[in-house]
Amino acid sequence: MNYSISVVLPNYNGKELLERYLPFTFHALENSRCKYEIILVDDASQDDSVTFIQENHPTITIIQNAQNKGFSFSCNRGIMAAKHDLVLLLNSDIRLAPDYLKKLLPYFRDSNTFGVMGKILDKSGHHVEVAAKIPRFNGYKLKSDKQAYPKSSQSSKIPTTFLSGANCLVDRKKLLELEGFDEIYSPFYTEDLDLSMRAWKLGWASYYEHQATCVHLGSHTTKNFFQKEKVKEIYFRNRMLFHAIHMDRKDLKRWRLYLLWGEVIPKVMLGQLWILRSYAAYKAHKYQIRSSRRKIRNLMLSNKGRISIAEVTETIRGLLNNKEITVL
Q1: Is residue 14 helix, strand or coil?
Q2: Rounded CA gap, 303 and 163, in Å?
Q3: Torsion-angle region of residue 34: left (phi > 0), alpha (psi -120 to 50) or beta?
Q4: Which family does it belong to (predicted)?
Q5: How many angstroms separate the CA atoms of 184 and 194, rounded?
Q6: How many Cα atoms within 13 Å fall on the side-chain side of residue 156?
Q7: C-alpha–C-alpha distance, residues 180 and 192, integer Å
Q8: pTM of the model
Q9: DSSP per residue over 293-315, as a string?
Q10: Fewest C-beta atoms under 10 Å: which of 63, 87, 102, 224?
């Protein structure tokens, strides 16, 4: 089957990154032999990103946000404008290997595939930064801090808890059915975990391909434009939001108690008062949480019935049990 690819590239003040890494993206697209388009969604940049693209890459479609709205909003604008079979969600600080897309395309022969991502190396190009994510529960918290990759290049498909929003190739029709990223997580973090979890709950699988390689400069926008404590505050808020959205109803009360007494209060006692801002921001999203829960419930009922976050975890771990993997 011949596929076509829409690249969705969110950008904020990334002119230097675009200049450096876009040639690698074009190379990988040409090697894929797929019809393609590139959509750059500029998130109200203050540098010359848009001018650079207009002058040097006139074939790229540019969508400009009037205000800075964050990763999820920008990606969603690109996703809704995409015209092709598959969507490549790509950060501007990612350098793709020439055969990156060729390694990912075969996964879509299976109609059950939601998406696939390749191996992310750190900026040195020698160390694995992101591989397949292994899910586990720590009390009432879903964790995916362990990673794995196959010991053999001949190993069959390796499932992953979620696809990194920095470098994943996704089935566009499935992505549209999920309505893209949930913008409750704006400006950044956890939206890619949420997206893949919703796909798993509908019975759609996410995979990791170790032979497809890219290099990541590393949170360029986040580090340059947000203070460290603010990043931590947003991260913990979004983890709270994720669990509030995805926990089974029967476990919600116990999870809320655990959140308050097991996470928030201990951090406050240690002087980490930023956690109170995370908690207050999470509580302020009460109605959006209800809306997100309702959307997932309705999608599951119209597809394969209700699937819990625990069942998704068991499914992924069960698939990994049959694989020869190295755990990081």
Answers
A1: coil
A2: 21
A3: beta
A4: Belongs to the glycosyltransferase 2 family.
A5: 10
A6: 5
A7: 10
A8: 0.95
A9: HHHHHHHHHHTT----HHHHHHH
A10: 224
159 preceded by a cis bond (ω within 30 of 0)? no
Give the HSE-up count for residue 253: Cα atoms under 13 Å, Cβ half-sphere. 1
pLDDT in tens, 112-137: 999 999 999 999 999 999 999 999 99
Which residues have CB under 8 Å from 143's CB, separation 6+?
Answer: 135, 136, 137
Beta carbons of 235 and 189 less than 8 angstroms apart: yes
Paired tokens of 177:
């059915």
d(CA 14, CA 12): 5
Give one DSSP letter per residue of 65-102, joined into a string.
-SS---HHHHHHHHHHH--SSEEEEE-TTEEE-TTHHH
Amino acid 295 reads K
Nearest partner of 34 among 4, 6, 59, judged by Cα: 4
Which 3 state secondary structure label does DSSP give 4? strand
Q: Tell me: the pLDDT tens digits for 203-262?
A: 999 999 999 999 998 755 555 556 888 999 999 999 999 999 999 999 999 999 999 999
